[in-house]
Design goal:
2 helices; elongated; 10 strands; six-stranded antiparallel β-sheet; single chain; disordered N terminus; alpha+beta; Jelly Rolls
């Protein structure tokens, strides 16, 4: 029993010294109307039963629903490629001012086996705190099997919660305002349009010179027929040279001419004798 107490005190001393590795609690990015806080546990190793809990990291949280938006669990060493461990799991505990646990998150998933280094990131969902919390811590959960001594490391844990708002209700104020009477504007002179039209927009008096006159478009030009192409022009044959009359024809012409000459002379002589 004394030996077990000495070992417990030694482990407690190691845990107290490990708090020097913690990063400061820092605000994390959040959506509108949300506040987020992050605790960095620096990759401290959990090993049940020797080191089942991390030291507590201060974190002020209101009672009600909070959300663990990030939980980074991991493990790694060279010989891990030959190791299978089924209980590399932890959960987040929320501690109240009196040291009691006022809320517990869901568990992280078991890490991948037979690789040199494995990491787990992501949310652990909503947690309902029965009282305000002043700190958080991680607890190793080897599936309630005390024989499983699988080690796992704890790094960042981020918790978000709704912003606290104070609403002041003011009594309604009733203001009565006398109605304002607005006189209608004076009627102006009646203007007759220069070209009165009917409901269809057609001029009532088509002869009114102020109305646009319809424009008659000229009829479309008909097709133009081109004259047939001129045919080839045939030139008359060239006129040949005049040839003198010769032979029997020339003798007949000569005798005919002499006959006319004699007949003419006879008629002239006869006319003189009378």
């Amino acid at each position: 029993m004394a030996k077990y107490l000495n070992m417990t005190r030694a482990v407690a001393g190691v845990l107290v010294g490990a708090t020097a590795f913690f990063g400061a609690i820092s605000p994390a990015s959040a959506q509108a109307n949300e506040q987020c806080l992050t605790a960095d546990f620096g990759g401290i190793t959990l090993l049940n039963p020797e080191v089942p809990l991390t030291p507590e990291a201060p974190m002020a949280l209101p009672a009600g629903v909070v959300t663990v938006t990030e939980a980074h669990a991991w493990d790694g060493y060279p010989s891990r490629v030959d190791v299978t461990q089924g209980s590399e799991i932890w959960e987040v505990e929320f501690v109240g001012a009196d040291g009691s646990v006022v809320g517990v998150s869901a568990r992280t998933e078991d890490l991948e086996d037979r690789v040199a280094e494995a990491h787990r990131f992501g949310s652990l969902g909503d947690v309902t705190l029965s009282e305000p919390a002043v700190s958080i811590r991680a607890r190793h959960r080897p599936d309630f099997d005390l024989k499983a001594r699988d080690s796992v490391r704890v790094s960042e844990i981020t918790v978000c919660f709704g912003a606290q708002t104070t609403t002041t209700t003011q009594p309604p104020t009733t203001t009565t305002t006398a109605p304002t009477t607005t006189a209608p504007p004076p009627a102006g002179p009646t203007t007759i349009p220069p070209c009165p039209v009917d409901n269809d927009g057609n001029p009532i008096d088509p002869t009114n010179p102020d109305c646009p006159q319809p424009t008659t478009a000229p009829p479309p030009a008909g097709p133009t027929t081109a004259p047939p192409p001129a045919g080839p022009t045939t030139a008359p044959p060239p006129k040949g040279p005049s040839l003198p009359v010769t032979g029997a024809d020339s003798t007949a012409l000569l005798l005919g001419g002499m006959w006319f000459l004699v007949a003419g002379s006879t008629m002239v002589a006869y006319s003189r004798t009378r």
